[in-house]
Amino acid sequence: MPFDITSQPVKVRIDGHDSEGRLIFADDQLSAVIVRLDGESHIPEHKGQWHLEAGFGPCDVRLAPPTFTTPEEAEAWVQQRLAGE
Question: How many domains does the chain divide into?
Answer without folding.
Answer: 1
